[in-house]
Amino acid sequence: MPLFKSQKHIFWQALLLALIMFNIGIFLGYSLEANRAERINKLYIESDIELLDIKIQDDAFYVTDINCEKAVEENIKFADRVYEEALLLKKYEDANRINQALTLQHKKYDLLRTYFWLNSIKLKEKCKADYHNVVYFYQYNEPSLDIEAKQRALSTILEVLKQRQGNRIMLIPIAGDMDLSSINLLLDSYGVNELPTIFIDENIKITDIVSVEELEKFLD
């Protein structure tokens, strides 16, 4: 009988320990997700400020003479921020379960990038700048395994291209399947009907996996 009681006591201790560890695991998991979500929200708040900033810059073209050298310099800095934030956002999103709130926030970021792209086109024309707009349209919502593998390969290639070319390119990733009318109109206008597509200087469409060297030929 004492042995039975001892085994029973050990059983309840093990069960209590398991419950404690389980609850600690849930708490740590929740805290980690909450921290990631908070960082993502911070990125989107910053994107609101950046969007307002670029809108004001755009409006300034019509009310005053803009120093082209300074404007292009600021545009390059903005492009670098957009690209770095895109990489960080992708990292956070990969670690979080995609949900409706996250998708809605991502739409805001796609609009920011699209506005930046259009502003880069106008700035390039007005200031005769020699940078290249490299827009990467990709599938965000439930890509197939083949599409996902292709997009991973293209993303890696574009990262290397950016490292090599630096300020010579404005690398702008935009989800092309977010059902945003402005982006849909641009895709239709430029004849981009396949995702993913690398779109260079509003003229060259690349839908296959190519090498960095092949991409660089279009930048000569």
Describe the structure.
- This protein has 220 residues and is an alpha+beta fold.
- It has one domain: Glutaredoxin (3-Layer(aba) Sandwich).
- Helix content is 69%, strand content 10%.
- It contains six helices and four strands.
- A four-stranded mixed beta sheet has the order 2-1-3-4, with helices on both faces.
- Strand 3 and strand 4 form a beta hairpin.
- Helix 1 packs antiparallel against helix 2.
- The protein starts with a helix and ends with a helix.
Question: Which outline best applies?
Answer: globular
If you average the pLDDT, what whole number results? 80
Strand order of the largest sheet: 2-1-3-4
* String of helices and strands: HHHEHEHEEH
User: Would you report the number of β strands?
Assistant: 4
In short:
By secondary structure, the chain is of the alpha+beta class. 69% of the residues lie in helices and 10% in strands.
Which structural traits does this protein have?
Glutaredoxin; four-stranded mixed sheet; alpha+beta; 220 residues
Which helices and strands, and how do they pair?
Blueprint: H1 2-60, H2 68-95, H3 100-127, E1 132-138, H4 145-165, E2 169-175, H5 181-189, E3 197-200, E4 204-206, H6 212-217
Parallel strand pairs: 1-2
Antiparallel strand pairs: 1-3, 3-4
Helix pairs in contact: 1-2, 1-3, 2-3
